[in-house]
Structure formats: C-alpha cells, structure tokens
Amino acid sequence: MMQHRSIFHRTPGKSLVGVLFTWAGLFGVATVAVTPAVRADAVAYLVNVTVRPGYNFANADEALSYGHGICDKVSQGRTYAQVMGDVKADFATSDEYQASYLITQAVNELCPALIWQLRNSAAHYRPPPPPGDG
Question: Is it the case that residue 34 has pLDDT exceeding 60?
Fold first, then answer.
C-alpha cells in the first residue's frame, strides 16, 4: 500500500504560531494607523475653564499659566491627591468636582501626553470626608 505525502506538510504548532504572529502584526499595524496624534488645544481649555463659574481668572493668560502649572506638577510626578490639594487651596474650596474639573481640563487640553500619568496617579484616589464627618 502506497502512502501519499503532501508537499505542503506542516506541523500544527508551527502553523498556529505563524497565524498568531500574522494576526498580531496586522492588528498592530491597524492600531498604529488609527491612533490619532496627541495635540494640545489651548482654546478648548480656555473655553471650558473661563465659561464655568468658580475659577475667576483675571484673563486668558492667567488661566493658561495656571493650567500649564498643573501640567508641570503632573510631569514632575506630583500625585493626583497633591495636585487636588493645591487646586482646592488656590481656589479656597473643598469642592472636589471643581478642583477635579480644572485638573482634567488642563491635562486633557494642554498636556494630553500626560493623561495616562494622571490617570494612574488618580486610580486609587479617595476624596477626604467632608468636614464634620468622621
């Protein structure tokens, strides 16, 4: 009895590895091709922080300077809790949302490359209890 051997003999393990590498390569190329460029948008920041009440910046330059100061703190490794404390002290408020909004707007619009650093720092942040609770 004669056995026929295929010229295209493949070992199952090797073909699976090849397929996985091919898919990984294609997926990686697709991901890189779709990833948008990260750009700062000072106009969006100014609109978002000057229209919202509570910050009362004297002018656009002061608002931008403050926002860039937040970016500097994040880039220097200050924690989310530390930056929150600074913003709440600067604006004499205990309002978590007001402080968080300003930090988020600054990082998202003025230094978007630092978004992940800020998010990682804020991952386990818990606001302090309101005065009188405890």
Answer: no
pTM metric for this prediction? 0.68
Domain ranges across the chain: 42-122
Amino acid at 11: T
To the nearest 10°, the Cα dihedral for 42, 47, 49, 54? 160
Average pLDDT over residues 89-107: 95
Amino acid at 77: G
Contacts of 82 (CB under 8 A, 6+ apart): 73
Find out whether 101 and 52 touch, Cβ atoms under 8 Å: yes
Are 55 and 102 spatial neighbours (Cβ–Cβ below 8 Å)?
yes
Integer Cα distance of 123 and 125 in angstroms: 6
